[in-house]
Amino acid sequence: MLDRVFNPEGKSLPPMRGFKYSSWSPLGCDANGRCLLAALTMDNRLTIHTNLNRLQWVQLVDLTQIYGERLYEASYKLSKADTPRGELGDFSEFQRRHSMQTPVRMEWSGICTTQQVKHNNECRDVGSVLLAVLFENGNIAVWQFQLPFLGKESITSCNTIESGINSPSVLSWWEYEHNNRKMSGLIVGSAFGPVKILPVNLKAVKGYFTLRQPVVLWQEMDQLPVHSIKCIPLYHPYQKCSCSLVVAARGAYVFWCLLLISKAGLNVHNSHVTGLHSLPIVSMTADKQNGTVYTCSSDGKVRQLIPIFTDVALKFEHQLIKLSEVFGSVRTHGIAVSPCGAYLAVITTEGMTNGLHPVNKNYQVQFVTLKTFEEAAAQLLESSVQNLFRQVDLTDLVRWKILKDKHIPQFLQEALDKKIESCGSTYFWRFKLFLLRILYQSMQKAPSEVMWRPSHEDAKILISDSPGMGSTEDDQEEGTSKQASKQSLCDTGKGMDIDDTADDSLPQSSDIGGREPMEEKLLEIQAQIEAVEMHLTREHMKRVLGEVYLHTWITENTSIPTRGVCDFLMSDDGYDDRTARVLIGHILKKMNKQTFPEHCSLCKEILPFTDRKQAVCSNGHIWLRCFLTYQSCQSLVYRRCLLHDSIARHPTPEDPEWIKRLLQGPCTFCDSPVF
To answer: Where is this region: Disordered (predicted)?
Structure first.
């Protein structure tokens, strides 16, 4: 009767606030191409949230309520063969229903592809993602969501699996790729010690395979609770094939299991790494780029475990990271590594001081760099992802270095120029634009005057008006003229590097001499930025024109200013791209001298295509242009990219599928999502 979840109306205890656990989905699951957040609250309610607008989180669905309704319709039976149980008044039945509806953990799978049959019997590939929810009784509910996930209508199915594990504590997805065949399963750990993998059978999932039967990784009931499980895909250099490394934190030890598929079947090698911590492991994280594992205990010690392959299995080299040397005496509560392994985030509170615990706990998130600038730059240059937004932790290290040194290192500039010459991928052009923008930002001077400090004019007025300070009319005029001359000198000296002193900041002669080279440098960088932006714009215009050519008939109005885009591309005599000229020739031949111009919605005048950023009619009405389709956004509502580089319009029901597909793209300058 004191349970706050089952008896919220009883009000015997105040409602519980906070979260037990949270889990992020892979990128590309919501309408903006970003992550979904599954949150388990303290009152055992599982909900899914999304970030629709920039700083606005919205709850999309309450899975606890939906799952409860399904159980109610099935009379709380997992299968039709189950015998009916007692009534809710029976305490054992009450406990059974409570345990089968109380989530313990939930984890997202990777994005997989399903086939959907349309009305004309045509099949199309649709992205989907799975969410596994582990309950107190050991059952696992596997939810399948169609992407992009919009709410309850995006739920495809929900299947319940009986794990057979008593007192389950943790859950993780096992995803393995062998000979271009993807296999998947669920790893479940128990508070009593056992760990095993369960097969997950799904229909209509393209290229999806699973195990034939459960695989026990550790079966001893040694009373060492499994705290955390991570699955890391690796490549075995001796066996010349891919393998899967499963690591689990059990007490103060790390349990590892190497899974490898050979002609003989599934090979399992397992062992424990001991001597890491003197206290139980409170958190564990893994860098999936290189397989490095990080563990921490509450005494402020973090261990780095590096897997090294042997002929048969593997071994770990580990080293100690003492946070006390960086942050002082601290207690650690959790760690996480950034997606590309550039940072380690640590949640800390104050440690003991003179043998005494602190009175209050102040939780802080500290960041420790795990890579050098050179390593981050090399990884960005050799990246297979080719998306700056997905590697934002690496670009942050590069940004910090350039802001600090106020120049782009020579080796990075030369390597990037070689990549652009040899490959020509727009990813390297976007990387170059990123470097130039940070360099321009580092060259800009801070304001010469502190914004919060009172101005000189106010001080002089107060002195002249203070009692006992007589002043004649001539003195006031002279003071006014001096004040005006000083103000004009201060205005002249704005933008220079002037020391902040108590006296009036007059420009020195040496500053005037050094000002022109700095301004020239800024103008030079600005010209390079505009040149790179123009190159990226032209490349995207070619892509848009290619879509127009492929998806339109001879005299169809595409609503895209095709003629204007063609004229804009050919307006620069210095731009000589044979591919663009051939494409434009085919499009103009198909259009047959038709222009299909855009019209201003206010005055019905023609909107000429003279600028890639905005459209101005003859009456002076200004409309911003969509950077994805180059249409004018003639509405009060539009979208912006995350870094506010560009704007894009919203798709409309009248838009064909290929235009909607164009509008789903990221920013052409910074790879950021648009919302």
So the answer is: 462-515
Q: What is the layout of strands, in order, in the sheet containing 281-287?
A: 281-287, 292-297, 301-309, 314-322
Q: Which residues pair with 485 in a beta bridge?
A: none
**Rg of the chain in Å (alpha carbons):** 32
The alpha helices in 247-335, defined as continuous H runs, are 324-327
Strand partners, 255: 248, 272
Q: H helices within 466-508, ranges in order?
A: 473-492
Give buried/exposed letters for 228-248 (b at 16+ CB in 10 A, else e): bbbbbebeeeeeeeebbbbbb
Contact in structure between 659 and 560 (CB atoms under 8 Å):
yes
Q: Using the CB atoms, write b or e for 354-381: b if 16+ within 10 Å.
A: eeeeeeeeeeeebebebbebeebbbbbe
- From CA 174, how far away is CA 130, in angstroms rounded? 12
Which among 576, 524, 532 is positioned nearest to 426, based on CA atoms? 532
Exposed, middle or buried: residue 449 (CB in 10 Å: 0-12, 13-18, 19+)? middle
Interval 73-94: pLDDT, tens: 888 887 766 766 777 778 888 8
Q: Which two tokens stand for residue 410?
A: 């020579």
Tell me which H or E stretch contains 161: strand 155-162
Q: Which two tokens stand for residue 616?
A: 């101005």
pLDDT in tens, 457-504: 544 444 334 444 444 444 444 444 444 443 443 443 433 343 443 344
- Six token digits for residue 142: 């596997």
Cα dihedral across residues 329, 335, 336, 337: positive or negative = positive
**Distance between CA atoms of 637 and 37, rounded to whole angstroms?**
26
Looking at the whole model, is its pTM more than 0.85?
A: no
Tokens of 342: 């550039």
Cβ atoms of residues 364 and 349 within 8 Å: yes
